[in-house]
């Protein structure tokens, strides 16, 4: 993650608020990976040691994975954990990186996030209208699971706005950017 600070060592309040929400949610969701691993372990033990299979538990692992992926996407973006082909990026100045990040956010991230979010509303609404359930395990949570799509879009939109604000402040010289934490290629 590229971290920025102003002259007083504090980020602007709006950035702290947006990224505070993303950070808190991301850390909370990370604990779900432990639960997911424990349920998967229990499934393996039940199946191979006891000969018992639970379709509901099997689906719950898939649902937990979906929650981690969908609600953790903005956290990953905040920490610059998405795949980036940075052949030139890492060699650029802080302002050069800010221009690339701003352009990528404004012309790629935000339009795609808005497309997904707005495009999913009718899909989610139709699932809620019938209170969609799983056909295999009859778990009554499919409509809740599908609701994660616009929620993911909202969180990514919030983080995209925070990234845009941050990059504009870097370009204006109001925030200093620290060097990004990228692995060196040998």
UniProtKB/TrEMBL annotation:
Residues 36-167 form the Tripartite ATP-independent periplasmic transporters DctQ component domain. The chain crosses the membrane at residues 25-49, 61-77, 98-123, 143-165. InterPro entries: DctQ (IPR055348), TRAP_DctQ (IPR007387). The keyword Acyltransferase does not apply. GO terms for molecular function: transmembrane transporter activity. Keywords: Cell inner membrane, Cell membrane, Membrane, Transmembrane, Transmembrane helix, Transport. GO terms for cellular component: plasma membrane. Coiled coil: none annotated. The keyword Cell inner membrane applies. It is a multi-pass membrane protein. Its main location: membrane. It is found in: Cell inner membrane. Belongs to the TRAP transporter small permease family. Part of the tripartite ATP-independent periplasmic (TRAP) transport system. The complex comprises the extracytoplasmic solute receptor protein and the two transmembrane proteins. This is TRAP transporter small permease protein. It comes from Bisbaumannia pacifica. The lineage of its organism: Bacteria, Pseudomonadati, Pseudomonadota, Gammaproteobacteria, Oceanospirillales.
